[in-house]
Fold each of these.
Amino acid sequence: MKKDKLLELFNSLTLEEKIGQLVQLNPDFLNESDTVHTGPISSIGIKEEMIPYTGSILNSVNAKQIKTIQKEYIEKSRHKIPLLFMADIINGYKTVFPIPLALGCSYDFKLVKETAQISAKEAAVSGIHVTFSPMVDMVHDARWGRVMESYSEDVYLNNQYAEAMVTGYQGTNDPHNNIASCVKHFAGYGGAQSGRDYNTVELSKRTLLEEYLPAYHSAIKAGCKMVMTSFNTIDRIPVTANKWLLRNILRNEWNFKGVTISDHSAIKELINHGIARDEKEAAQKALEAGCDIDMMTACYANNLSRLVKEKKLDISYINDAAFRVLELKNDLGLFENPYRGADEDDEKKYILAPEFRSKAREAVEKSCVLLENNGILPLNSNKKIALIGPYGNSKELCGMWSFTVDKDNVITVKEGIEKYSNNVQYCTGSQILDDYQVVKELNSLFGQEFKNQELVDESLELKCAKEYAKDADVVIMALGEHSYQSGEAASRTDLSIPKPQMNLFKEIVKLKKPIVSLIFSGRPLILNEIKKYSDAVLQCWFPGIEGGNGIANILYGKVNPSARLSISFPYHVGQCPISYNFLNTGRPNTKENIGNRFVSKYIDAPNLPLYGFGYGLSYSQFEYSKVSLSSKKMSMDTVIEASVIVENKSEYEGVETVQMYINDVVSSVSRPVKELKGIKKITLKPYEKKKVDFIITNEMLKFYRCDMKYDSEAGKFIVYIGHDSLTNNEECFELIK
Ligand code: NOJ
């Protein structure tokens, strides 16, 4: 529709109809039957007469249902303005990929973009218009359950992934292939204090601007059409009512023209935050601050028109926000075709297409991180295998957000391994958890029955596990946290593998058989004992529907692992939050300070994580030459080329992710000890060498200086190029201004 027609349509709307565009409800509200309304309506208390004006629907996820709702809605609506259908398509729709944190470990932005393209295709033909993804919240705390949805603890990686996901989803805005992307949770949600979900965030303005905001900004620069506000406060003001963030930063500085939406119930929660007396005041504060759509509360629906009539709210706030929603609908082509890509035949044709599955398998192969290997891997197919542990034959491999997956399509580890060996004995060995209460809560929320099959006779299982282990050449232990132990509202203070599984592991260790441990989790777990007693450890995350195939391909050497940790694995939960890019402090815990009590350290644990950022093994052995710089001096308008020669000293062809970090030695504010500034992926044949170079630019050296100006400062810099964030392969240069 042309803009003047859209304006004409908009001007013909009543105030209530405009407000309706700012209301998002779940599909139950629009169900034909009146009785179905009772539950949700009474729970959020929305005025019945406002329901028909609702502008968008949350989490309705198949073509048939979406088409029915849309058809009935349009038939009843005076202006025939279609509904927008939005859903949480996080790591895939039916072709479920590894969780975002796992994809973050691929360091492969092209691959990540391809996963988003496939998700968009499947979601588009199923009638979905907008996905609440990507989530690019910076995260340094493994206690926070939502680390699984994040890509990384690092600014550079988060920027790249944000761009890859947004461009992957949105593509050319083709109704049959693309959907709109909603970046979330703006802003700083990953900084929740104590790693507790929904908790307060306390960040300095400098850290917020420099580390937390850039990824959202990258999403916007990539054309992202929607932004979700976060639950947390920033500078004690909840983001959903934070004018500085929603207007000054997002609209004025970043020039964002799209739609903003609150997170679920966040407008009403302004009352709990203690910044609004009631729903009416909450509605006013949120809209004035710049939050366009109210997700799943009655605040806007019940109060905005009253606020205008009482002359407390300028109508322009409603007009601007509602018109943005109509523009988005128009941009997606809904006025021409309200069903957009929704097509049951296309659903059958494209969903889970073989090429989608093979991309999912590639994603598993590129995101499982090999943490330990004493040479036991890759396995030889002749070896007799005991596969033990609750993840050995589990289909629960997709993570908490994959409520659209059909679990029958998941390939288990057992199924994957059996493609290589007919000598596998499997038993579950133990339950995942000793106490299932936490899981039951989520099951009931998702309308699912608690799965009793998760309960096993542990003494029988242990007996069987020991017998199989004794009889085997190699024991593969498939262990981890429950998939509902990470994700939303899944913060943990104890990051160990649940007790029943650790007991099982210890019993198997006593048998002194070679052990390959596969770890399934949505977050870094504490793996000290697993490391100590395993011959190899593969961090598998929640790998999605092709998990079993991808993992088996790594175990048997069809694929050489190449993934790198995009987040630190703490040595002890007490180290959280932890990340590689910390500040030095006045009393750094350096080698020179060994034996000195009065430095910044723990007396009962190291400062460093068990496995650091950027770390990950391969079956190849890579060796680095010293860093060489094209010049030791750089001016504002020149660049330096930094290079290394990397050599594959093994018989395996492999992929190495070469990482460049920079440290600004002296500046007007304290700077991180290292910051990732670039990566290069190279494939090296056995014994092949390659030169890898990076260009260092002035842009890379900028930061928020003491005067809050974003710029570089003259002086000495150290550049590091190596295998991971612990590299000390360094060289210095000077920036002259
Ligand atoms: C709450 C979550 O915080 C958010 O990430 C999600 O998109 C919404 N619910 C909608 O389901």
Amino acid sequence: MKIFVCGFGTVGQGFAEVLHDRGAMLRDMFEEEAAIVGAMDSRSYAYDPSGLDPMALVSRKKESGKVGGSGYSDSAEVLSSCDYDVLVEVSPTDVKTGGVGLKNIRCALGYGKDVITVNKGPLALRYRELVDLADEKGCIMRFEGSVGGAMPIINLCTEDLVGERITSIRGIFNGTCNYILSKMDKGQPFDQALKEAQQLGYAETDPTNDIEGYDSACKVAILANAVFGRDVTFNDVKITGITSITDEAVAMASSRNMVIRLIGEVTDTKLEVGPRLIPKGHPLSISGTLNTAQILTDLAGPVTVSGRGAGRTETASAILSDLMAIMDKRCRSRWAGSSSTIPR
Ligand code: HSE
């Protein structure tokens, strides 16, 4: 399995480290090597069809700020001239246009390559187009880490809960806002809490995307499309951020045994992100940078998950699970018709 990583920033490097760590396990499970053959950042790329050393890529990036020795002017040109099976697209997200991530995903799918992405912009703006392109080309596009980071949600709903009628998903999908609101619960001012969230590496490059609710709205749109089969974009979400929440409002909520949390909500008809009053002790009243989601289903009842919504290794863990699903499928088709059993 030849992997090309586009966007060799924090998450890309985390993925390289995780792949290095789990390489032997993948080989044992799927009788196939998972090798990074290409890696690209905003200025450079490295490519070797026989495989690159993931840890050497991480070191080079750390030392020189560049992942490779070759420059480029058009990422799509590089992607179309390299041989790989799966694109891991983890470029910085652009929620206005889809940015370079959208271009890279379109390019890879167009050439019949499978895609794993955690890039929210392309999925929140062009979901249907990308899914249709993947179908047309007979390839797989998976994006577990795009919502909730390490918290299982997309594949949980579409695979594990596949037989359920899911009536709603409500959740906390932005760690930065949750960190700020839970610090405000303790009397800390908004600006100071935001600064801390930025220092922790949770906030987006432009934190407006977090505090105005745009990041949560992208995730709500992705869930609506992937889980509810809707055809919506980020622009269809009714969004209210947390910038107008005052210390007084937080104190007033607390006096009623409530907290204020930024909640994203998706149903067949609803698509909203906004601050909501949540009773203390309720699963959606969590503090800190965690994400959480309550999935209401008809047979299983409410299913609640929580986990780390961002982070180098945490997000890479979601990419690993998508990679393993793709490797599993390839392994099964290799073994189809064979009299031997799959090596597990
Ligand atoms: N800025 C996001 C957050 C990162 O704070 O949750 C994960 O999408």
Amino acid sequence: MKKRYITTPIYYVNDVPHIGHAYTTIIADSAARYFRLKGFDTFFLTGTDEHGQKIEEAAKKRGKTPKEYADEISAKFKALWDEFEISYDKFIRTTDPEHIAGVQKAFEKMYQKGDIYKGVYEGHYCISCEAFFPQSQLIDEEFCPDCGKQTGIVKEESYFFRLSKYQDRLLELYQKEEKFVLPKSKKNEVIRFVESGLQDLSITRTSFDWGIKLPPSINDPKHVMYVWLDALLNYITALGYGTDERLMHYWPADYHLVGKDILRFHAVYWPAFLMSLELPMPKHIATHGWWTRNGQKMSKSKGNVIDPKAVADAYGVENFRYFLLREVPFGQDGDFSQKALIDRINNDLGNDLGNLLNRIIGMSGKYFGYAIQSHDVAKLYQKELEEVDAILQALPPLIEDMKWHKFLEELWQALAVANKAIDCHTPWNKMKEGKEDEAMALVALVANILAKVALMLHPVMPKTTQTIAQALGFRINPESFAKYIDQSQLLENFHIQKVPPLFPKIEEPVMVEKKEPPKKAKKEEPLITIDEFFKTQIKVGTIQEAKELPKSKKLLKLLVDLGEERPRQIIAGIKEYYTPEQLVGEQVCVVANLKPAKLMGHISEGMILAAKDENGLTLVTPKTRTKEGTPVK
Ligand code: ME8
């Protein structure tokens, strides 16, 4: 039997699940359900990523041990997926003893092969992304290019993985496997990254403890493994790599579902690790975009994170599943709004799908006592049947390429054929004209189309489609899928049952959203004496000259007259808010007795005062023109 192995990323336990996690998981679940329905032996893996500095710090903040904290959050992920009836076959935790043993085995193998060596690492590290970045990639020489947070310099003894050794083989892989990255358009950025030159990867840390120790055979207890090495290996340790390998026949993965933020880890580092372990390559790294809120990235500090449980409670988990997959082309970013969700429920689901079932129930009851036969359908409605068949046969490649939005869009064309057939052939007129056979064939045609749509839609809306199947009197399972979809057969008889409306109309938003960002807890600000305040000399100055610093997104170089012999050179991080032209001639308040500092190789001899809130940044200026050098007290 053919197999399919599908994975989600394992989610960090530093935060509770949000809509992005639900999105990846629901896509993977839909794919797993589809392949099961196609009769594939399918294994679907999800889980949680529990090691690393980020988790250690999150636990500490809450006064818990990392394991206690990980237990708590991991359980929340699992409970949510269970509530959403996610059909995973295994929920892995990176604190599972089998995972730890498997990771140590993998490390040992790579080490013995000579792909791991000991050295010293010095570099900019972003704790939030758990990643090192070369100087050339940093924003303004200190900020993380991925999340924008400040990086810190870390210098430590480290074991390295010989990533550079695999550069050519990786490029060959991308060239040979056209669909290694899905959507295909995303592959170019991976190729560019690898072509720009791969450096060996630091894969152990000594600066914290919360991680997997090196294998006992290497005996270097100071080190713990880099969280990404630990995490990526979950995809094989879940199958028992290095311990009980009975499930390893599922390897290689057919689909690693990932968000675009972690494409590089999956399309570059992971294949290189696998090459070192001499294991086959995954078939597809399927990469989706980001869900945003009013165009902005969701984050806790902005208070705009969407809780998937709240959406599911308000609108129903299956409607939410349909929306997530239909609304945004796979690979692109999408903005979440209740209005868009309500429109999808009322229009696509209510009008196109739900109403069709109502029409079948209504007509079959009124005219035929809820019993319908299909014997005349092929004879009378050949054209409609061919149209629907053509639509259905084109769907599997769309799912195999993870083009879920297109799949659903096309599937809805089959509903359009059914709705149009009713409007064109008006069974109520046929009944009046005494053409009962034709009217029954029409209702049977439409019921057949709806049954086929329900079979195809089942992976996305498992329960709703079961209700449709119950109403039409058939079963959804691999046998019926093979018969009515793959072999294009017709259902012969329908015993229709009444069911309550599937998609009651929604008039207005149901979910209450937080308008205000959460208030930050007030920190106790220590008081200072007047003498301490006077240690800071603030003076009024006039900007004489303002220039851009070529490589910097944030900094401007200013010359500011403070009434001294020569103007001061000040490097100010205000470029995102002011153009140089706006600044010349403006008066500002300057901290005049700061120790000079170098910023991007330019001396800065003071600091300009500014106030920043959520609307932007504004310079602090005297209300009326004031002599340069006047102290501000
Ligand atoms: O990265 N929109 O875990 P993580 C869409 N532990 N998807 C989003 C999203 C958003 N706004 N925010 C997050 C990790 N995601 C690692 C993975 S795998 C070996 C290790 C999704 O908890 C997206 O799939 O930060 C992203 O890749 C995943 O959540 C990251 O989850």
Amino acid sequence: MPDSSVSTTRAGEITERRERVERRIRDLLDRMTLDEKVGQLNQVNGHDGGVTDELAHRVRAGEVGSILNEVDVRTVNELQRIAVEESRLGIPLLVGRDVIHGFRTILPIPLGQAATWDPELVRRGARMSALEAAGHGVRWTFAPMVDIGRDPRWGRVAECLGEDPHLAGALASAMVQGFQGEDLADPGSLAACAKHFAGYGAGEAGRDYNTTNIPEGELRSVHLPPFRAALGAGVATFMASFSDLNGIPASANRFLMTQVLREEWGFDGFVVSDWESIPQLCIHGLTADDREAGLAAATAGVDMDMVGEVYADHLAELVVEGALHEALVDVMVARVLRVKLRLGLFERPYTEPERFPVEPPPSHFALAYDAAVRSAVLLKNDEGLLPLAMDGIGSIAVIGPLAQEPQEQLGTWVFDGDPGFSITPLEAIGVLAAEGVHGPTGPVKVRYVRGLETTRSEDRWGLPEVVEAAGAADVALLFLGEESVLSGEGHCRSDISLPGAQEALIRAVRATGTPVVLVVMAGRPLALEAVLDKVDALLFAWHPGTMAGPALADLLFGRAAPSGRLPMTFPRVTGQVPIYHAHRNTGRPPTPETFVHMRDLPRGASQFSAGAASYHLDTHYTPLFPFGFGLTYTTFAYSDLQVTPARMATDGEVRVSVTLENTGERDGVEVVQLYVRDPVASVTRPVRELKGFRRVALEAGARRTVTFPLPAAALAFPGRDMQPVVEPGEIQVWVGGDAHTALGAAFEIVAP
Ligand code: NOJ
């Protein structure tokens, strides 16, 4: 059969399936009472195993549409049985869970996955997570979180996909594809949820749940695009943010939930509130009581109430009183039923655990290993200390509170992760040593000293032993950073340097003269300027997950090469944040000529003896490491940047190509990044914006041309009227290995 008829048949099947779903929704709505309709909009919390009489009663009465936090498969199936067999209309429950970066097998935290710049790996990771979770009765995950994270004080940057809308969008759609699979009705697929709509990452001072003030243009060019990308990948649900956006909390924000999401983007799935975010509308000061809060949320476009019980308590009464049209309730219920029908829950309400592996198979650990390897970012490597050259090393001191912590290496949001599967760095290094990583005098000796009780400990009782072990070793491997509890929801920090006495530990090890490799595990970028010159090599590993140990040991010993790149800019000191690559220029940008550090100001300096430019006097204006940065065990050179044609119409496309050469002696992977700037526009544009990236594996000495298509549409931005516009004029282009790359060119956009 020719291709066109195959696709026509497929399109016909899809239309037919859609129509069938809509018919079934109409049929159900015709038969539902108002209370049953409201029940579909109510999500309740589970009880971690076991069916209480009260819950059974509510499900039987049709008062519950969804349940979260229930992963005991027998309990899920029993609740489902009550819903399907004992409730009047037999509508199945939708079971949700935060499956954020793995389920039993834990992948790197999402920010670490973003550091892979590898959408296919991220897709496979989400697929693996879906299969593990589906075996426990889960059919809906509250992921991906696609909030743009530009303030690393915010604990939830751990869960985000970085600071950049293009990177986050590409990875968000990969995650959606992984969770939802080819067919949502496959029992191994989960409905995904793009959260938190919208602007949650912009909370003032990096404090969780905090107020956000985001002008519409900024919202549309920075915060909304990753959500749009998730929708493009077919995401089934959205979650409203906890936060207040410009005076209207997201859970009552009609502009977001209806104008943008439904009217502009055509989303036909449902929006769930965040946990009790509907009753919290009263705490925000938007509504006087729960009844008003329910009315505000429903009319804004929030379809399901997560745990708040506001819809359950007030929606029916609001309809009866005439404050809320029943037709709107019907629309909300239809959206929920649509997702349940698309998931095939009516046909297959029960989880068949025997369809899924009881324990994670080896392939899941292999994937977790690959993801951990690819997420680690090599930030410093003086004199090529890494990979460790074993012919010169007889003994290693493994030091630090994170070398042997099976739980901490998993990171935040690991409700179902099993630390029993974790392999720690200390264990993996021990295995490598025992298996024959030989130094000049036989097997390498490994000595472990914890040094500090936790990453937060100020108590220095362990430092003398650290010094003794480091002094006696040929190399000191420090495993420091943050335990998982220092990031994640509600876990923000005002100072993002290494906590506790860790800087003192590094200084003490440095003083021994032994070469120092610092491996940082953390849930956020850290401000590491104070320690950077005290270590010879620095590998930033995020929280790498189950397979942290083998991944890090292989990277340190050269069985694998680092290929991660920063998905967030690393500040020198906390006071620089928010600091991100796609900032706008200001009228007084700092330059080497205008910048004066305060230590260089003469005594009695007058007001304008410093540069009157946009910087802090007590630190440099550049970050410690730019967005996109990362080293590996080889080097790459870029040349011959070309844009063809040199002029394009406002609806045209150019091709940007560059020659990449592996100039080192090892094979390696480079993440080639394409940046643009629109230097003169009706609304000022960022100094650089990422518009493309590609992971390229290249053998030592090899060259390759890398080409990016760049359509004019990718250069559109919200104009003064908020409509997308592509303006004629010059566009500057750079291609390279990070956001500060110097290799540039330009082309012209012309009116058609
Ligand atoms: C609150 C969090 O903000 C959200 O991301 C999560 O999915 C829900 N709680 C459910 O646990």
